[in-house]
Design goal:
With 103 residues, the chain is of the alpha+beta class. It is built from 4 helices and 4 strands, in the order αβαβαββα.
Length: 103
Amino acid sequence: MKKHLEAVTSLNSVLWSISPDTPESLQAFGDKAGLGFPLLVDAELETIKKYGILNQEHGTIPHPAVAIVDTKGLVRFFHTDPNYRQRPDPWLILEVLRHLNSE
């Protein structure tokens, strides 16, 4: 999504990443990767558990997920897969954002 950050922001949307990693490791990762969007810490796994994406087989490692939440706090799109290589196409995410932006 890093490559599509400008398109996301042009649709009145923001992109965040949530991880159980320490603030220091996330900062180092974000700096190295040059992501350009906030990396949020969920050390207590509260958000990760609420979205049901905690990978029980690997302790505190969540399954990768994409959630689009509207301004009212409603989840309008959600994707996760136990296979970390399976991610939704960025164009699908942008299409959902376009649709929500037109409502």
